[in-house]
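Encode chain A's predicted structure.
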Amino acid sequence: MKALSLLTPKHWQLIDIPEPPAPAPGNVVVRVHQVGVCGTDISGYLGKMPFFSYPRIPGHELGVEVVAVGSGVSNVKPGDKCSIEPYINCQNCHACRRGFTNCCESNQTLGVHCDGGLTPLFTIPARKLHVSTKLNYEQLALVETLAIGCHAVNRAAIVKQDVVAVIGAGPIGLSVIEFVKLTGARLIVVDINENRLQFCRDVMGVQHTLKTDENLAKNLTELSGGHLPDVVIDATGHTGSMSNGYELIANGNGRLVYVGITTDEVKFRHAVFHRPEGTLLCSRNALPDDFTRIINLIETEQLNTAPWITHRTGFEEVIQVFPSYILPETGVLKAMIAVGN
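Encoded structure for chain A:
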């Protein structure tokens, strides 16, 4: 069968790989229907993702169908539609034993550390599947993106009384926005791109937006009611933005949360962060309960996935189309790749 592999940065190739054998105990074979393209895939394509190795079959935002199950599998059956939790954890390390499966010491994320879903069929542990009887394959592929935002908001322990600034209105930032809105906290979205801010206002219903400039701290203070935000969540992965975040949190339990990843040094002056008794948090991947919650929220129409998907392409067109996804003028928010019918 065919698969799409990144041999090296910016070098796609259509390759032949064997079909998976009958699944071993605890495993399942799934048919891939939809694959979402996210910032990790773009960074992997550009050679800027620190955890990405080559050659690699990308694809970790997945809407799949179960086609075969191994012995001992009881949570899914052939024909089930599922979202995949793509963080393959060892179950034995210190983090896994304490329930922090997102931080497994030997984590292998599909499409990043090991081959992912840009192929018709592959094998995965059944415990990583999350079933829905109501969602379509595109919605199921969106669950992982939303889970990143869900987990970040949980890490920040946001309450209704907080003012929250989300910096970066790309796909991950938008997933954060969705879950900040559910807390009832006052939300401010910051980005350098006015088109993205317009999208947040017109489509996401965000009332307060700011364009990044030298007056950001002053403008945030005005929108927050005379103080800086209680929580700043940086979803940019940009070193400068991440370094500036230390100066943007309110005195008294101000929290700075990193969702984006950079390979460069992030710098700050200790006194600036010490003065407000600031807390730095990093948010990595997501937990199984995040997937369960999100599927329920979409099924009950508390989360609307309709605005998310801006571009669609077929498996056969990926090599030709993918380079356009890195261009700002393309306006890609979330692209979906149809692998199977």
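The two ends are 15 Å apart (CA to CA).
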